[in-house]
Amino acid sequence: MIKNRDTRFTLLLLIPVLLVLIAYVLYPSLRTFMESLQKDGSMTFGNYSDFFTQESKTNLEALWNSVYISILSVLVSAFIGIPLAFIFNRYDFPGRGFFASAAIMPIVLPSLVGVMAFMFLYGETGLIPNAIKDLFGLDEVPFKIGGVSGILIVHAYTMYVYFYMTVSSAINKIDPSLEEAAYNLGANRFKVFWKITFPLLTPAIVAASLLVFMISMASFSAPFLLAGGYRVLSLQIYFSKINGDMEVAATQSVILSIVSISFLLFMRWYQNRKDYRMASKGIGAHRSEVNHPLLKWILVFTGVVGVIILLLPHFTILLLSLVPDGTWTWQTYPSVFNFENYRLLYQDPNIFKPLKNSLILSFIATAGNLIFGVLASYVLVKRKFVGKSFVDILVMIPWALPATVIGMNLIFAFNEPTIFSFGNILVGTFWILPLAYFIRHIPLVVRSTNAVLEQLDDSIEEASRSLGAKWFYTFRKVILPLILPGVLSGTLLAFVESVGEFPTSVLLYTISNRPISIEIMNQLRMFNMGQAAAYGMIQISLIALVLFISNKFFGVKAEKSLS
Amino acid sequence: MASINIDNVQKAFGKVMAVDHLNLDIKDGEFFTFLGPSGCGKTTTLRMIAGFYYPTKGVVRFGKKDMTRVPPEKRNTGMVFQNYALFPHMTVFENVAFGLRVRKLGSKELKMRVEDVLQKVRLEQYADRQVSQLSGGQQQRVALARALVIEPEILLLDEPLSNLDAKLRDEMRSEILRLQKDYKITTIYVTHDQSEALSMSDRIAVFNFGVCHQVGTPSEIYNEPANDFVAGFIGEINLLPVKIEKIEREYIYVIVQNGESSSELAVRNAPFNYKEENKGDLALSIRPESINILDKETEGKNIFKGTIEEVQFFGSLINILVRTGGLQLQVNALNSGLSRNLEAGSEVWVELPDEQMRIIPVVNGDGS
């Protein structure tokens, strides 16, 4: 029927990719949508009109709060991240390299662990407010974080990195001769910045803003632990589900999905638009050395203080993980330090089990990500077919959808037997979590593979084929070895992200396969800070190890695929 | 070794016709060049021979075999890519051995053949290097060796010299010719560089806008261009729009619009200079080196008085721009005798020899 064997082969590769995307991305979203139309046993838009008109305005308020927090997060993150990017990429002063790499440290903190660290540091019983109280003999703690300000501080800490990274790479791509040309034509520093540099950075700043907005809309851990009575939409979905209001949860999910997917589409449009960035060859970094001694040491001092603030959460987790449970109850500060928590992790099967669960679940999910990611990416980058942008959007949807929504989608799709689950009910079984982790990290692996495949010239594959190699031989011997570093670094990152995954876990876990993040939450409830922190430390070390391996052995800046 | 027959081939990308109604016969063992500006369809044609594209219409044959829809891995063509397309994760030896490993050659023979071809391209001592450690010229040789070692029926070279600097280019040009003669292999060479095409090829096909304008030996292409595109693309040329006034047995008289006035030129009536089947707009073409410069008025046909506008000194050659009436003529003279003393502003006479002028059809512009 189809004459061209190349087209036929593309189709053969495309079918499994499409099948997975339809079964586990599109179908669950549609199931949620169908569920949101159910009210009192009939099909209506009643849930939606309730959402917008209900008297208590709970939902509307939560939607507005989410948007409000997200806009503030964008502003605060931009305010920190953009100047930092400038200082570190345009000026040279002692310790610059160290500060520049320390600036990305927030990303080695899994979100739940990060929020936990902030609670211990700056919360009601936090170390810093209490230290200040004791130092100055105050009656009460001078400040504590919680509610909106708490969420915002955590967001600023974790999300400024996206601004920092995207703007840094944009700054380094600006050809210095553009600015030199402007100076040569008589513009002063101020004019050069506003007329040349800043316009060239706009695409990066817009991209980072959209990204941070979407991430804060989806943020779950921070509101979960810090919000108090403050309502945000991602959390409302969880509460609706806990209360058994499944139709309401579905409606909230659909509304949050619509916001997120419109942002995804807008972002795609914005980035695919033809813009004026030019690719100049051989751009060297051009940094001006800071010579003024006072200015230089102010910068160094600020850098040191900044690094301390940045690393304080990591350090707190490390410190707490050394505090045995039961030794820090009424005292302001912990007094006993040893490796008891790590010993228990190693010796007590009950405490080890969540870690083991997480590793197994993540391993299964990531193996799926690896195979699917390479296949999908190859088809998307190297093959031509009609409807490519549709497939591309399907691949990116799990990235745009908040984790809570993905969790809800899976509940609605697989709490009944379907052909996609081979006639099984998956909710409440072992398999639902690996599936959730797999879906969550499809975009990460596909995109990191895309990045290496796009750099691989088509002529390499053609050369192999003209030398007589069939497609599969070419793929095995030529393409795979060349893209493997990029693929592996993306996959490893997906693995550690899965180990730390909280929002889908909390919606889908069962007691017997509870992962590490759920156990952290349980330990916190029982005030076993030490054990919770020890779990956190393991996650931090895993992420740090993966970033190190990627940088060292694969020559890939893995942290880049996070944004 | 094989001849290639391209039979009424057409290739469309969407609505764009990349190659249209192409008919070519490339002989066994011939060095055949596709010459044309970028986007003219020469690479598309090469890729249809390699099997990376299938023609929309028409047939491609190697010898008598129909290869139109045979996948590239079953064609036994050796291809050298513009960017070489060396496998960056393999050594020089492994790159060259790749095609033999695909053919499941025994390790002894494989080693022998790889070493043999590496010696032919003078890279035997680089066998264990990573390809990234080689210079551009050396990478080029690896690409050649990799294509030659599989003993292909046809060697395809896609602008292989365009990434090299001028000196290396001359060196590789003779290297490629030497290897081609050595292996006696049918070779198709794609280039936009006319001097490469003229100096290397047995025959050349000149392409523009997906249409092949002329096929011929380098001398035919240069001396008897089929139309104004071929004349203009290869070498320097004076092209003057003309109308035929009368055709006599010995001479053809044409009128050149010469500013306000017009002048009459006499072209020798020979098939070399004028083909009767040429219809439509016509142009008179003459190479700058065929025009003679005279320092005093002389009796004869086609002699005009003019003023020198510009003199450019190139060493062995001197380019002179002469204006006669409304016409500007470019004249190239050797650096000897009279031409040494010429300078802008001086008065000269130019002679357009009657047997050096060609009357050719005008196709330029839209490619129709």
Automatic annotation (TrEMBL), chain A:
Q: Does the keyword Kinase apply?
A: no
* Compartments, as annotated in UniProt: Cell inner membrane; Cell membrane
Q: Any idea what this protein is called?
A: Iron(III) transport system permease protein
Coiled coil feature spans:
none
**Where is it chiefly localized?**
membrane
Q: Which family does it belong to?
A: Belongs to the binding-protein-dependent transport system permease family.
Cellular-component GO terms for this entry: plasma membrane
| Keyword Glycoprotein set for record | no
Origin organism lineage: Bacteria, Bacillati, Bacillota, Bacilli, Bacillales
UniProtKB/TrEMBL annotation, chain B:
Residues in domain ABC transporter?
4-234
Where along the sequence do coiled-coil regions lie?
A: none
Q: Which SMART domains match?
A: AAA
**One GO CC term of this entry?**
ATP-binding cassette (ABC) transporter complex
* Pfam families xref list: ABC_tran, TOBE_2
* Taxonomic superkingdom: Bacteria
Asked if Membrane is a keyword of the record, the answer is yes
* Record-linked Gene3D superfamilies: 2.40.50.100, Nucleic acid-binding proteins, P-loop containing nucleotide triphosphate hydrolases
Q: What is its EC number?
A: 7.6.2.11
Q: Which SUPFAM superfamilies match?
A: MOP-like, P-loop containing nucleoside triphosphate hydrolases
Any GO MF annotation of the entry: ATP hydrolysis activity
Enzyme's top EC category: translocase
What UniProt keywords are attached to this protein's entry?
Answer: ATP-binding, Cell membrane, Membrane, Nucleotide-binding, Translocase, Transport
**Entry annotated with the keyword Membrane:** yes
**What catalytic activity does the UniProt entry give for this protein?**
ATP + H2O + polyamine-[polyamine-binding protein]Side 1 = ADP + phosphate + polyamineSide 2 + [polyamine-binding protein]Side 1
**Quaternary assembly:** The complex is composed of two ATP-binding proteins (PotA), two transmembrane proteins (PotB and PotC) and a solute-binding protein (PotD).
Family per record: Belongs to the ABC transporter superfamily. Spermidine/putrescine importer (TC 3.A.1.11.1) family.
**Its biological purpose:** Part of the ABC transporter complex PotABCD involved in spermidine/putrescine import. Responsible for energy coupling to the transport system.
Q: In its UniProt entry, what is this protein called?
A: Spermidine/putrescine import ATP-binding protein PotA
User: Its encoding gene is what?
Assistant: potA
